[in-house]
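Quick one before lunch.
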Amino acid sequence: MNSGSNQQPVVDPSREAPTLIEVQIDGIIGPTHHFGGLGIGNVASLANQAKHSHPKAAALEGAAKMDQVASLGVPQFFLPPLVRPNWDFLIRCGWIDSKQRFDRSEQADALKRCADESPALLSAAYSSSYMWAANAGTFCPESDAMDGVSRLVLANLSSSLHRGMEAVERYLQFTDLFRGVETVQVCLPLPAVDPLRDEGAANHMRFAAPPSSKSPLGLHVFVHAATSVGNTFRSRQSSLASRTISKFMRLPLEQLIFAEQSPEAVDAGVFHNDVIATSNRNLFLYHEKSFLNADSLVQEICIKYESLFGTPLHLLRIDDAAIPLQEAVRTYLFNSQILSLPHGGMHMVCPVQCEQSTAARELIGNWIDDARNPILGVSYAHLSESMANGGGPACLRLRMDWPAGWLSPSAPPFHASYRWDERASQKIKEWIHRFYPDRLATDDFQRIDFADHVISAVRVFPLRG
Ligand code: SUG
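Model of the N~2~-(3-carboxypropanoyl)-L-arginine complex:
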């Protein structure tokens, strides 16, 4: 089932709600990973603009994180890299005529002229920003929807010069990934206009029952950017987009909350909610300065959570005195990937920057020692290249709660060619070693031989759907 329609919800009271399994879908880091300085409100991206990047090391770091997650028994999937430079984008921006798109000397000329006259646009055409899969879309499992349909609403990413182009390419990838699954709707992104700007799951949290409970329901919190004037940075997620997506998903009001980021957090470099707050099932980790009117918001979340699940939500509130906003943004503690382990309990994959920060390391140690919360262990991921562009462990993955039947051994494995297992890991790492540049400067983008190389590299990606 593809594309959304706006028919009225149909509730089927006899339907049986399925058990859900949390899956992780990472974007493979591409061979043109670089520091374009294009991330709006993203202090790491702005600070590292035009530095040399290391695409091979970057992609191997991302692969190692997927190995780490898969080794815990958590279902891990990947999305193949997208073809860059994006010639369609360059054609639409007038740098080459569509009739000449396959003419090599015209291509070479277009790259050179664009590099001289509009380097930001060329950087966008080469961007590997699709690697941050948390921004690909927002997912709602069928058990939460009033009409019993699972939906993935792709994000339009319309705020950013370099990211808007991902939306349609991602739509095609997910349509392929879910090929043949009748109970999921892959929905086109909202219209790519400023009032509907949307950045996907990075601004959405789904709370669920503790693992001991069988309830498949979820409480959805959509976080939009600060609306008050005076922000240093332009906001990325509009309130209208969040509200429209929640309607699309046919969510009942009892399972729905809207929240606003605090302007102070946005000004400190919190360009997405997942930089300063995160959830996993019955756990809520947040910074005291994450939200506007944080106390009343958290109270609302707790009340709705308890009335849905009959048990309290586990809160980990971090005060500014313990981790100041700037330290939170530097370490990306809140962007740690919290995983539900197959046999109960949770595990955190934190950026190595948290291990190197005394304050963050001590907090994590205390959580593990405290038997009252579900966190059982931690591992640290080295993601220096992604982090230098403002992307931590949780940014690199889209988390979805899939009906267990989709993964059962007796079901058709529609997702088989996107599964990260030992074979995929080995093949993809070999391919990275063979084709990825060790070091990249944005000057390389104007070379036609470089463009040819990275396009052919992605075309021979070893595992295609
Ligand atoms: O959109 N960085 C990304 C980082 C996305 C992080 N995702 C989440 N928080 N979920 C962004 O700002 C930098 C690219 C550059 O500057 O070349 C960039 O796009």
